[in-house]
Amino acid sequence: MTIPRLTATLLLWALLGCHSATASLVELEVIDRERATPIQTHTHRGVRYVAGTPGQRYALRLTNQSGNRVLVVLSVDGLNAVSGETAAVTQTGYVLEPWASAEIAGWRKNMAETAAFYFSAMPESYAARTGRPDNVGVIGAAVFRERVAPPPLAMPSAAARSAESAAPAASDMGAQKAERLGTGHGEREYAPSSYTEFVRARSTPDEIVQIRYDSYANLLAAGVIRRAYVTPTTPQAFPGFVADPPR
Question: Where are any strands of DSSP class E within the chain?
Fold first, then answer.
């Protein structure tokens, strides 16, 4: 079965399968497209957040930190960024080559175009406009390792075959908030893609990576962003010596 593959960066479709991970397989960053730099991440109680501004276009940078291909099922506001379905880990996604990085800048419309991601007022988000506002404000990536075919077995000798026939087969057991932000469905952009085959090692993700987002004011009110303390200055009757006036 084939999966859509983005030229040099993106890719789609998959089969089931996976394995549990001990180290991070994929790094997820939110990129400010105007500045071409990552938006600052704030960590609060073990959860990562970014602050967005209405109208700000963004992309999601996925970096494969392993030497093997991985499949990333990408969710924005609880919706699959490729198919638009309510997101589930069994769905289509993007395939990354070993050590490769890709920037996903929008909702996939077809094999050549995406509709730009941008921060919007929650009622104007794509999720809310399609009647699915419950998970607005979270970006997630479910990562799957690829199933690797075992090397071909050597043909056993006649003596080994005789001993094997008598042995049993082994079995494998074992403050007041402002309006929340969402992600809008922006203008169409050229983003070519192609297909590739990918078989998941198992049916559950090796890793799930999440970043939450909202406005700066809301994250400040929620205590995610700490207000910078500025030492107040007060007028002094005797501040020092007389300076020359400007010329």
Answer: 2-6, 26-32, 37-38, 41-44, 47-52, 58-64, 70-76, 79-80, 94-96, 101-104, 106-108, 113-121, 138-145, 181-190, 193-197, 207-215
